[in-house]
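tool_call: predict_structure(chain=1)
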Amino acid sequence: MDTIIGCVTDLLPEKEPLDNPKEIIKSIQIRLKNTNSEEHIRAISDAILVARHHPKLLKPHINSINRKVVQFLNGQRIFDVRLACQSAGELFRTMRCTDRPLFDDIVTGLMNRTADKNKNIRIDANWALDKMVISIPPLYSIKSIANCSQHKNPAVKIAQLRLMHCVTVIADPMKILTGIAGLKKARQLILKSCVATIEDPNSEIRFLSKKLMQLLKSTCYESFCSSLVQDISWDELKIAGKNLNMETLAADILKKNTK
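tool_result:
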């Protein structure tokens, strides 16, 4: 897997705070309406500069910027895609906007790019997704990541499980297990994703799935078992038990429920 350690926003270098952010925002709006893609690049770059120092001023215009980011993410030019990935990461960090469907569209675009043929794009996409799980509330992150559960590419599955593990650690595994603070849906999506990949042909996918399940199991065994019963089917329960050295799990739960 590509390392993202030390990844920097090389296409969006740090600059001094703006003296005239309101004027820059006006120019961004004009540039976005232009048909020239170079103007769109300048608009996105300027938007990131405003977001870093004046996020409140940019907030009313964030959806139009996000739409352009989505367009670039789905484009063909390597520079445009890389700029979109790096911009998405910066906007997750500074703006923390979760307006749907644009938020989901950006996350899906980034997830797809984790399997890109270009190494720099893969690194940029993973970096942006890391910024997302650090900056965005856990349930929003998990829901959007889970949208890619049916993806066939191993790189996307690996990214999905890696990010779900990060979210679980950040949110607190116990909070995920107990489903407090609205995290019940997140727990359901995490367990479903793990069970669906725990017998995957790809060894790294199997490893990441088991690693996340073991984290939850070791946090609180009883809560983990209770969560499995609530969130997955009987057949899935047997798969989980077999792969987590919990061969008697299904039988024990059945015995307990028939008492």
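agent: Residues 22 and 57 are 7 Å apart (CA to CA). Proceeding to next step.
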